[in-house]
Design a protein that fits this description.
heterodimer, A: 432 residues, two-stranded antiparallel ribbon, 11 strands, B: 217 residues, 9 helices, 43% helix, globular
Amino acid sequence: MIALQILSKILDTHDDSIIDNNSLTIDYFKGYEEPYSFIQEHKHQYGNIPDKATFLSKFPDIELVDVTESDKYLVDGIREEYLFHQAVPIMNHVAELLNTDANAAAEYMIHAIRDLRPNYTVGGQDIIADARSRYDQFVERKTKQEDWFFTTGFEELDDLIHGIQREEELFVIFARTNQGKSWVLEKICTHVWEIGFNVGYISPEMGANSVGYRFDTLHQNFSNKALMWGKDDIREKEYAKYIDSLSDNKNRFVVSTPIDFDKKITISKLKQWIDKYKLDLIAIDGITYMTDERYKRGDNKTTTLTNISEDLMELSIELRVPVLVVVQSNRTGVAQDDSDGTPDLESIRDSDGIAHNASKVLSLRQTKDGILKMEVKKQRFGAVGGKLNYQWEIDTGAFIFVPANDDAEPRERTERKVRAVRHKYSDAEESF
Amino acid sequence: MINRNECWYNKACTITDCTGCIRYYEMKYLMEHSGIPKRQQYPIKLDSSYDEATFEFLDSIRRDIVNFVDCGESLYLFSETTGNGKTSWAIKLMLKYFDQIWAGNGFRIRGKFVYVPLFLDSIKDFNNPLLRTEKDILSKVDLVVWDDIASTKLSDYDRGQLLSIIDQRVLDNKANIYTGNITTRSTMENILGSRLTSRIWNMSTLVKFSGKDRRAE
């Protein structure tokens, strides 16, 4: 009925601002989709709202009504109706699921219910009246950096991005396949663990022990090849001593695989996982392995990944846990392999939404010379385009920073580093 | 892992532990992407007894090679005979340049050695997906050695390709070192055409070698 009242009022007043001002789409006009579209199209084509005669000639069965209600009443009313129409199929589906799997029903309901929130309550913060809270937060950030940021373990990267924010941080690492994304991800995780925090690492492609061996390589430079191949290069006693020493640390590095998530890594399960292990940072080695809880029939991969990345960012805000995620770049990224740089944002595979939702994006490329090139492609609170080069000794997990005159670091600092590098070599004679 | 025996500074370097040696990695990158034949990537001593003045002049450029490149200067090293050190000198200058700029290079290609007859063959391979990249690099790097330029008469296509790169380099004030056996401007014009000759002969410091072919000795 409310839909009819609104349409009647529009035809009566020749004013459809009630629709534009309140974002009332066709979905709100259940049963009146055709009249709604007719009015919109007429306005679009002829520049005015059709008069009643025109309208009734098209819809002779509709009986227009006199409307004296305020716009606010009508909008609240139609939104309530809309909510009802949305809620019914969800509740029906929940009821169906409850018959077979209460967990699945609850999980579905928790997420579906979020979309059902009445949308007429619009909040906001007066940044003038509440300015003091901003000041307090600034002081806290300044005095307790470790409560607000993690360093990455790449000192020069930290200079560019000021580390990883401990909240509201969806940090995307992307590159083509086999370029070192997972290594860089684990290097950052290892560092965060080294500075005393609990880390959660989701590894869809490697088992916990393989991730563990990489950890040993990154943490203490054990030859990864020797660890994986069981070679004699590492003495058993030395490794055993190191392994024993790890238990002196009280903080965790939890590795989980999709099997640990019953093959469905969802946001709800991630929240439980974070809560269970009291994780301070989580890393997901492949966003495509996640399951979209908001999936609707017909959604394509782009929508799914956009939803997931949006939910990951929300998770980070809600739980105050930074999320690091690895994403592949598409074939455009391959073409760029021949050039000097790293893949650009538009090369992110399957979804622009990932870059859109990310707070930071780091692009990687490994050259055949064993050089790892990094470039900051996005950061919300800093400059983009910062480039860094590392000589990467994969087997020992050593990343040696190689300063370059075109680094994005402050020029003075770069020059100092370049001078220091050259100064290191005091040759006995001239070679060239 | 770094193989010390392959290091260009093997004899001079006083550091004993090569782990993580940035100079090695940077030089390796510069060398491998330079196109200098492997055998000629290591420093050699050139005998100056035949061309004392020429060698002295080139040595002065060697000592000031960064300035030479920064100013976008060019050299044409030529002689009637072959094997008297033109290519060796061109490479020596490029190696010195690498030695001077490796610190802070950040794994960029800075110099290219092009054996022109081979290059002219390669640009006719239209299936080569890297051709465009290669030409792009040649247009942009700081220093290019064009070895044995004008050894054969060029077709219109060859001339067009070569001209587009060299012209771009000259316009961008990039340094070039040409070597060849053409000793007069008119002969060069006959082989390369007037436009290329104008850029090579007129815009380079001409350095004549008068020594004998030492490869025959």
